[in-house]
Amino acid sequence: MDDVHAPAISVAGLGKTYPGGVEAVRGISFDVARGEVFGLLGPNGAGKSTTVGMLTTSIRPTAGSARVVGFDVVAEPLAARLVSSVVFQETVLDRSLTGRQNLELHARLWGVERAGERIDEIAALLGLSELLERAASTFSGGQRRRLEIGRALVSRPELLFLDEPTVGLDPRIRAELLDVVAALRDRSETTILLTTHYLDEAERLCDRVAVVHEGRIVALGSPRSLRAELGDEIVEIRLAGGAESALRTLRADGIANEDAFTVGATVTLPLHGRPSADALAAISARGLHPVAVTTREPTLDDVYLRLTGKEMR
Ligand SMILES: Nc1ncnc2c1ncn2[C@@H]1O[C@H](COP(=O)(O)OP(=O)(O)OP(=O)(O)O)[C@@H](O)[C@H]1O
Ligand SMILES: [Mg+2]
Predict the structure, then answer these.
(1) Fewest CB atoms within 10 Å of the CB: 58, 198, 261, 283?
(2) What are the pLDDT digits (tens) for 88-121?
(3) How far is the centre of ligand 1, averaged over its atoms, from the C-alpha of 85 (Å)?
(4) Which residue segments constitute the domains of the chain, with CATH numbers given?
(5) What is the value of pTM for the model shown?
(6) Is residue 267's pLDDT more than 70?
(7) Ligand 1 test: best mutation among 16, 18, 23, 54, most atoms within 8 Å of CB?
């Protein structure tokens, strides 16, 4: 059913248990509005690619349901596939063809009207115009990624899935590619779902993010609202060791809440208006000596580390 009022993506209790028993996705639910840029954040093996696979009909769900632009991915897979495009973690370009030939091939597969015009438009948008007549094998990694995104856009999809679009790129090319996605976002014709490990990327590009951990969504909201849960200020206390026991002490003393966490030898403590001196005094009272102390605003990294770190298990 094509429903103009349907969300771009609607996921309810979606799950995937692979043959052999790996529960990659364990009942996730979320909606993505049209024109929204939605991020799935999570560590390796969290279930991000499996989720993208189910939404793009290449992986069959074992529980729940999902609709893209109103089409059920299991009951109406062809219609669901026609409204979306995906850029996979692995490349699918034909390296022996030129940039233009790669785009033409895709345009033919999708029966794109006025393909030449569309290709020129995309090349301009992605900064590929000068490169189009060269073989894709001569493109740099970043140029290839841009061509890959161009390929996905040729068919004028309502929905674009980007699975770790910037992984393995050097910082400059990564920044360039982020500009490309930001430009797509500003045109807001296309709904984008992207997966990433890079929190700065999510912060910059995404209207909302879902933090995925071991197949479940453990937080969902705008980057700003997720950060706000940790308050205005946090203190990061690096110790020579024994961060876990220091955190237990701070909790026992009523100085740390449930939202404090450790990463390696560092205790990260949202202050919620309490002076950081209280935490430091409690730590020295136990004979522990901080190696370094930093007070700063919470970042999305803090949210992510708290939710996907050891403390959760
Ligand atoms: N075809 C498969 N058969 C069995 N298990 C699989 C299969 N594909 C993925 N898995 C497992 O499902 C879990 C989730 O994998 P998935 O690729 O969805 O994670 P991811 O979040 O994309 O990770 P990464 O950040 O490393 O790309 C992992 O434990 C993985 O080993
Ligand atoms: Mg993946």
Answers:
(1) 58
(2) 877 788 999 999 999 999 999 889 999 999 999 9
(3) 20
(4) 9-222 (3.40.50.300), 231-297 (3.30.70)
(5) 0.90
(6) yes
(7) 18
Give the DSSP per-residue string, the chain.
---TTS-SEEEEEEEEE-TTS-EEEEEEEEEE-TT-EEEEE--TTSSHHHHHHHHTTSS--SEEEEEETTEETTTSHHHHHHTEEEE-SS----TTSBHHHHHHHHHHHTT-TTHHHHHHHHHHHTT-TTTTTSBGGGS-HHHHHHHHHHHHHTT--SEEEEESTTTT--HHHHHHHHHHHHHHHHH-SSEEEEEES-HHHHHHH-SEEEEEETTEEEEEE-HHHHHHTT-S-EEEEEESS-HHHHHHHHHHTT-S-TT-EEETTEEEEE-TT--HHHHHHHHHHTT--EEEEEEE---HHHHHHHHHSGGG-
Ligand 1 contact via 46 beta carbon (within 6 Å): yes
Give dist(CA 271, CA 280) in Å, integer: 12
Residue 293, token pair as written in the block = 């102390």
Q: What one-letter code names the amino acid at 78?
A: L
